[in-house]
Specification:
By secondary structure, the chain is an alpha+beta fold. It is 25% helix and 26% strand. It folds into two domains: 105 residues, Rieske [2Fe-2S] iron-sulphur domain (Rieske Iron-sulfur Protein), CATH 2.102.10; 284 residues, no CATH class.
Length: 451
């Protein structure tokens, strides 16, 4: 057989057989890693409230083995897995009114790690008194809010205020907590929110219509960098309408997007809000978890999706429990990101202009990690203490018939006008902001003037 035709086709498997390296700076999040230290400067959800009971539960967050439990008085504790006495697992501890008691020798610990009792030892002995007074089981502060349990795993002297986002209190919304586990590094899952183009292909073409026909349209892509907030807009032409869909990332891992099922670009919609309010939290370098609320109501998704199957479809486009063949025929986000491997070989990527959002947010995290190593604490989502953080993940659909000349530029103009107007109302009260955004969108649509 003549090999010349193969040589002429320039097959490159052999030349590219070495697996590229990973992005160590972002992918490694265990204790004492630079990115792990950075992430520990923020509050993260660590569990669903429904997962926490008087039976201790072992969890792993940021590469650290922990135990979460609820005392018989209803207080939640998050502590190190190993008892400081003889390293027995607190997973087998017994919860009581005041805390958790180690199964091995009965030492009792409060939710903040204080040693309350050392039974078996003379309570008046010098050693027993000293350890009770000077040592504590490692523990982390907890805030339980609307079905999610949050914790701060960083140094106490730099603990930030718990962030309160405007999406926590959208009138008429029902928000249901959920979790989806991923068998891959956190960056792979986080990247998807700053990749608004993938919705057109993964959710609209490659796997059939997972949401609506409108998702299959490839729109105009634009990105906005605003402090530690990053917005990726995919603005689609749907017949006589223009659909502005905004994905949102607030560093390090808070994400929102438009609705999954409530918008398809076929009818007007004004500042519809996100299908989920979500954090992507590293479990370890090879696993992560999305802990979130799915949002339902007039400005969220339809209430019929308020169930486990609905949460999974909103999160990833498909349900989780499927055969390998079903996943191959109709991959969702989980298959796309887990298929990269447990840690993607980032150094082998060939990033393009539509990947700008990914490039700029990764670059900013690297900068913040370096700043922290040099002693500068990273910025928090709230600019001033006590403020409610304004978010921008949304859907807006406006009637805007095609122009005779360059419609592509017209669609981009509509996107930029919508976003500029939205930003101009940012300092208003939440009620006034929403009212003015919606009023102005309706006026822009009625006038047909998007300058």
């Amino acid at each position: 057989m003549d090999n010349n035709k193969f040589i002429q086709q320039d097959f490159r498997g052999y030349k590219q057989s070495v697996v590229p390296k990973i992005d160590e700076a972002l992918a490694r999040t265990d204790p004492n890693t630079p990115c792990g230290e950075y992430l520990r400067r923020y509050w993260h959800p660590v569990a669903l409230t429904s997962e926490v009971s008087e039976v201790p539960k072992e969890i792993r967050i940021l590469g650290e083995d922990l135990v979460i439990f609820k005392t018989s008085k209803g207080n939640i504790g998050l502590v190190h897995k190993a008892c400081p006495h003889r390293r027995a697992s607190m997973t087998y501890g017994k919860t009581e009114d005041e805390g958790i008691r180690c199964c091995y020798h009965g030492w009792l610990f409060s939710p903040d790690g204080k040693i309350l009792e050392t039974p078996g030892e003379d309570p008046e002995s010098k050693q027993a008194k000293k350890i009770r007074e000077t040592f504590k089981l490692g523990a982390y502060p907890i805030i339980e809010f609307n079905g999610l349990v949050f914790s701060y795993l960083g140094p106490m002297d730099t603990m930030p205020e718990f962030p309160h986002y405007d999406s926590f209190e959208i009138p008429g919304n029902i928000s249901s907590p959920y979790r989806i586990d991923y068998d891959c590094n956190w960056v792979q899952v986080l990247d998807a929110i700053m990749d608004p183009l993938h919705t057109s292909f993964l959710h609209g073409q490659s796997s059939g219509l997972q949401f609506s026909e409108g998702f299959a349209e490839v729109g105009e892509i634009e990105f906005y960098e605003r402090g530690i907030q990053y917005l990726g807009c995919n603005t689609r032409r749907i017949n006589e309408n223009v659909w502005v869909r905004v994905n949102e990332l607030i560093l390090p891992n808070f994400t929102q997007a438009g609705a999954a099922f409530a918008a398809d670009g076929t009818k007007s919609k004004y500042f519809g809000r996100s299908s989920f309010t979500r954090w992507v939290v590293p479990i370890d370098d090879h696993h992560c978890v999305a802990l979130a609320w799915a949002n339902f109501g007039e400005r969220g998704d339809p209430i019929e999706y308020n169930n486990q199957e609905g949460f999974e479809r909103i999160e990833a486009g498909e349900i989780s429990n499927r055969t390998k063949e079903e996943k191959q025929r109709s991959p969702g986000d989980a298959e796309a990101v887990e298929g990269m491997g447990s840690i993607s070989s980032h150094k082998g990527e060939h990033l393009m202009p539509t990947d700008k959002g990914i490039m700029i947010y990764r670059r900013r995290i690297r900068k913040l990690i370096k700043d922290l190593e040099e002693g500068l604490e990273p910025p928090q989502p709230q600019k001033t203490k006590g403020e409610v953080i304004r978010t921008n993940g949304q859907d807006t659909v406006l009637k805007a018939p095609k122009k005779d000349n360059n419609d592509k530029e017209y669609v981009k103009l509509i996107c930029s006008s919508v976003m500029k107007m939205q930003f101009n109302f940012e300092d208003m009260s939440l009620k006034d902001r929403d009212h003015n955004i919606i009023k102005n969108l309706k006026q822009m649509e009625a006038r047909g003037n998007f300058e």
